[in-house]
């Protein structure tokens, strides 16, 4: 499948994968907007399942940080434990087994740690990275904002969940569109992003 020029950042179900990073119990009370972030990541997972986009799930040091929160709806995904601040070392076998892979959709925590380092590792492998900005957060909103700008400097694409979902489905005549419409009927919950972008933020000029 031709996905257009690489610089356009087109996303197609047959060449994409969803990465779900470290949405674990111990982070629940420390990450800004945790329930909202997880609910948006859960949307992405539901859409991925409808469109047969593979999804992978990691857990950072689960002995200490606990298991993936149930509201992500990730039953049936085998969580891969890791200690590295990147998902890529734990997933290199999966990555090598998808020769058609072109785009990685990235959700989870923390933006300045595992999300940033995963993005850099994926970009280094020549893959396109789409950071789902309303499905990524941090303990600190400054860390979150600067990490989003930092990934953009390295060539990652920043998008909202809805922007990516509609790109993936492509056409209102798609057989799964009615189901997907139910998922996005209510706008994604606010996770403070508007405040980060307001006032012509110099980081995003």
The percent range for helix content is 25-40%
Give a short account of the largest sheet: 6 strands, parallel
Number of helices: 8
Overall spatial form: globular
Index terms:
205 residues; alpha/beta; Rossmann fold; 6 strands; Isochorismatase-like_sf; Isochorismatase domain containing 2; Isochorismatase_domain; Isochorismatase-like_dom
Question: How does this model look, in words?
Answer:
The chain is an alpha/beta fold and 205 residues long. It has helices at 34-50, 62-65, 88-96, 111-124, 141-153, 161-169, 177-184, 193-197; strands at 16-21, 55-60, 80-82, 103-109, 128-137, 157-159. The protein has a six-stranded parallel β-sheet with strand order 3-2-1-4-5-6. Helix 5 (141-153) links the parallel strand 5 and strand 6 (157-159).
Chart the SSEs and their pairings:
Blueprint (H helix, E strand, L loop, with lengths): L15 E6 L12 H17 L4 E6 L1 H4 L14 E3 L5 H9 L6 E7 L1 H14 L3 E10 L3 H13 L3 E3 L1 H9 L7 H8 L8 H5 L8
Parallel strand pairs: 1-2, 1-4, 2-3, 4-5, 5-6
